[in-house]
Every structure is written in C-alpha cells, then in structure tokens.
Design goal:
Blueprint: E1 3-7, H1 17-26, E2 35-44, E3 47-56, H2 64-68, E4 74-76, E5 83-85, H3 95-99, E6 106-108, E7 113-115, H4 134-138, E8 144-148, H5 149-165, H6 172-181
Antiparallel strand pairs: 1-8, 2-3, 4-5, 6-7
Length: 187
C-alpha cells in the first residue's frame, strides 16, 4: 500500500518545526534538508499572493530519481511505496537530484552520498507506519499529514468539498460541464 504526505498550505505558518523534527529524528547533519519550508510568492504590487509549502520527497509512484540513478541505489519498496537510497550503493553523482522535480535528494558533505526523506524509516530508528511522521507529529497547525494514499486522497476530497460548500452558488465548471456534456445519466 502506497504511503505519502498530504499538505495543507492554508495551515502552514512557516515555523520550521517540521524541518527541525525531521533533522532530529533522522539525525541529519547540518547542511542537507530532507524537509524544507519554502515561501512561494506571485503577482505584483498591490495584488501579491504568498503561500508556505513544506517540501520533502513525494515518494513518487514512478520515481524519476530511481530511473536516473546509474547504480540502482534508489529503490521503491513494494510493501509501502517508500522511495529509499542505499548508501552502500550510492556514488554521490547527483543524477537523482537533477531528475527530481522537487529537488528532494540532498548531498551529504560528510558521507559524500545522496540522502532524502525516508518516511522516518532511518535504520535503527524506524517509526511504525501507523504513527505520524516526525514532521507531522510536531506540526502545531496540522498542515502535514501522512499515511496510506487512499486515506490521504479522502482528506483531499473532503477539503475540496468543504471549499465547494462555502462557495456562493454553484461552481461554473459544474454548470458548463452539464451544458456541454449532459446530466451524466444513463442514455
């Protein structure tokens, strides 16, 4: 069963507690960040928008970092979908970082190897999958959730439904779809 993260940017206050918890739990040295809070800004004055996003490895279904690794040091575990780096195989070439759209793999200066979020499965410090990840557990606003993707998809649908429920009237997309494609009933 594929595991992953759900992140609600409307709750993130950029406190960086998730970064600190990740480094602490996984004993990550100074330098690499397996999780990093970034601020994304758009627009021009006076119409400026900003949001905070806590980024980490997304444990992609078809992980581009895995395909880019010339020595097969990156694998995806069949039982839980977690993408892991084998430090004994890694040569520190950086191809995985170039391939990753999230820039998740980070070079450890001390080890000369790539490392990244391992879903708190650091050898000797494995966190049971039914418990929150370190970043999730410490987040004061509940912006980060982890678990099976089926459960996280349900959270996403509930969040979308809540946003639709707070809208005045019906969303235009639904009206346009019915006009263009019919009611969706059996013909």
């Amino acid at each position: 069963m594929q595991h992953g993260f759900y992140f609600d940017h409307t709750r993130c206050v950029k406190c960086h507690a998730c970064e600190i918890a990740c480094k602490s739990w996984n004993e990550v040295e100074v330098g690499p960040r397996w999780r990093e809070v970034v601020k994304i800004e758009s627009g021009t004055f006076p119409d400026v928008r900003a949001m905070n996003v806590s980024m980490a490895c997304m444990h992609c279904g078809d992980a581009p970092c895995r395909s880019a690794c010339p020595v097969t040091a990156i694998t995806k575990r069949a039982e839980d979908g977690i993408v892991v780096v084998d430090p004994d195989k890694c040569i520190g070439c950086g191809f995985c970082t170039w391939a990753c759209p999230f820039n998740a793999p980070q070079l450890s200066a001390a080890a000369g190897k790539m490392e990244k979020c391992n879903f708190c499965q650091t050898p000797g410090r494995e966190r049971p999958l039914h418990l929150p990840r370190a970043c999730e557990e410490i987040c004061p606003t509940g912006a980060i959730r982890s678990g099976p993707m089926t459960e996280l998809a349900r959270l996403g649908r509930e969040s979308a439904a809540a946003r639709l429920g707070s809208m005045q009237g019906l969303p235009g997309l639904m009206i346009q779809a019915q006009q263009s494609f019919g009611s969706g009933g059996a013909d």
